[in-house]
Amino acid sequence: MAQETVKLTRPQYQFVFSKAKFPALIGGLGSGKSQGGTYRVAKLMLEDPGINCGYYFPTYDLINLRGIPGLIKDFETLGITDVSLNKSNYTLSVKGYGDVIFRSYDSPDRIIAYEVAHSIVDEIDTLTKDKAAVVWRKVVERNRQECRHEHGNTVGCVTTPDQGQLGFVFEKWGGIELQEGYELIKASTYSNPFLPADYAD
């Protein structure tokens, strides 16, 4: 497939090209958070061939319905079609670039025995603060593959702040002063011009 022009919203662009170690794209329904995540993975792999990335969702159903098809589609948009899926271990291999390893929050015991350079955690705020903290720690522990990114290994977060001020996301990105290495990018549904005109009605 010929490479197409990639259309990003302003918040998606900020997230995809963020230099922060822990960038977060926080937004509402339809704001394009997940596509921001898939394009960030694609960008990181294209600019540093040979690395692997981790991608995390609340359930394996969401991985199958949204994560894997979304990433395959985005690679196709970029002109990369030599992609193969190992369904037994939820690994998407992109020839010449590396692997994307998918894992679910409902099986945190499977977040072991592999290394990646970068990760995306999608909708982590669906978890309670304590459970999210465990998943976050496990994800960060997997992020130790050598890479050429100027700030080393990164973990991006794309989520709706479902838990509000009681949640993990608010604790990490919601304070008056962000911790070093953290970046907060906000996206509203209305920031996405690619939705149908009546989507937010």
Give structural notes.
The chain has 201 residues and is α/β, with parallel strands linked by helices. It has five helices and eight strands, in the order H-E-H-E-H-E-E-E-E-H-E-H-E. It has an eight-stranded mixed β-sheet with strand order 3-4-5-2-6-7-1-8, with helices on both faces. A hairpin with a 3-residue loop joins strand 4 and strand 5. The longest helix is centred in the middle third of the chain and has 18 residues. It is globular and about 45 Å long.
How large is the radius of gyration? 16 Å
Average pLDDT number: 88
Strands across the major sheet, in which order? 3-4-5-2-6-7-1-8
Task: Report the uncertain regions.
Answer: 190-201
Fold blueprint:
Blueprint lengths: L9 H7 L5 E6 L5 H15 L5 E5 L2 H18 L5 E4 L4 E4 L3 E7 L13 E5 L6 H14 L11 E6 L8 H6 L8 E6 L14
Parallel strand pairs: 1-7, 1-8, 2-5, 2-6, 6-7
Antiparallel strand pairs: 3-4, 4-5
Helix pairs in contact: 1-2, 2-3
